[in-house]
Backbone:
């Protein structure tokens, strides 16, 4: 559905932001794009949407070259950017203005999502808080039913109950022909939603693995003392004892803790990445 071949991108000469990326994204999946500040996550997303253009290599999205920004492409792609500015209209006017760009726009779904988020319906957008505005945009994004949904830090600025609402709204909303890429630092908000994890570092994808494969290779556990377990790959002090990431030697079933996983990869790359070489 999305295919990047040898994609290289930089804002200025001599400073590669995306370095020779080979990447494929399939429909029916939610991808979590992780990386430290400045790793190149937004730049990658903007290349996929055609808002930035590669210096070398290819980017193909649903058979289109995004850089051409053809209407048939734009109708099927929605980017929720990290920072946004909304016009001073009310929600209904906003829908009347922007929904026509998306032929598959589902007004009933939009209303349902707004209800879950408990957004006051009759307000001017400028009278809403930043978090409420974001909820309008998340609801709008999902209601477009665009085949490619890209969200840059969608849960930034959402309060704790809203993060739960976000998970509720997203879960079960993706169709088999849609693909969602979520770039985030707020990994705890999303670890139950993500099908596949990508980690970007210094312009390269250092890991791209389905959650099922991560938990097949690694186990995520709490232990009272580090002596009671064979040397973990990574550990962090927890309320009672330690949270650990260990090699999953006994085919244990554990739930991915994406924050622990990301930290473990950052600190113990040499130990963890080889577990995933094919
Ligand atoms: N408009 C720009 N002009 C020049 N350099 C830029 C521009 N935008 C980003 N960069 C640089 O490109 C690199 C990647 O930035 P990008 O915003 O893609 O990273 P990111 O992973 O999304 O970061 P964050 O997690 O902080 O949002 C950084 O080194 C950044 O300084």
Residues:
């Amino acid at each position: 559905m999305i295919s990047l071949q040898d994609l290289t991108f930089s804002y200025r000469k001599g400073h590669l932001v995306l370095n020779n990326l080979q990447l494929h994204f399939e429909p029916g999946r939610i991808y979590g794009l992780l990386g430290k500040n400045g790793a190149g996550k937004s730049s990658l997303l903007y290349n996929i949407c055609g808002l930035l253009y590669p210096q070398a290599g290819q980017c193909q999205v649903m058979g289109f070259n995004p850089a051409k920004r053809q209407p048939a492409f734009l109708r099927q792609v929605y980017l929720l950017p990290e920072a946004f500015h909304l016009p001073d209209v009310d929600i209904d006017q906003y829908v009347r203005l922007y929904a026509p760009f998306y032929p598959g726009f589902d007004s009933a779904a939009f209303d349902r999502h707004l209800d879950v988020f408990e957004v006051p319906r009759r307000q001017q957008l400028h009278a809403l808080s930043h978090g409420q505005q974001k909820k309008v945009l998340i609801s709008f994004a999902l209601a477009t039913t665009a085949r490619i949904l890209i969200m840059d830090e969608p849960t930034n600025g959402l309060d704790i109950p809203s993060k739960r609402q976000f998970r509720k709204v997203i879960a079960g909303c993706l169709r088999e022909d849609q693909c969602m890429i979520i770039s985030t630092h707020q990994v705890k908000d999303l670890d139950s939603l993500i099908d596949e994890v990508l980690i970007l570092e210094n312009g390269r994808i250092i890991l791209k693995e389905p959650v099922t494969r991560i938990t097949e290779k690694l186990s995520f556990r709490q232990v009272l003392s580090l002596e009671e377990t064979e040397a973990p790959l990574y550990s962090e002090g927890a309320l009672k004892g330690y949270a650990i990431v260990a090699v999953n030697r006994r085919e244990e079933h554990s739930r991915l803790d994406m924050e622990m996983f990301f930290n473990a990869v950052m600190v113990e790359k040499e130990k963890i990445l080889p577990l995933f070489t094919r």
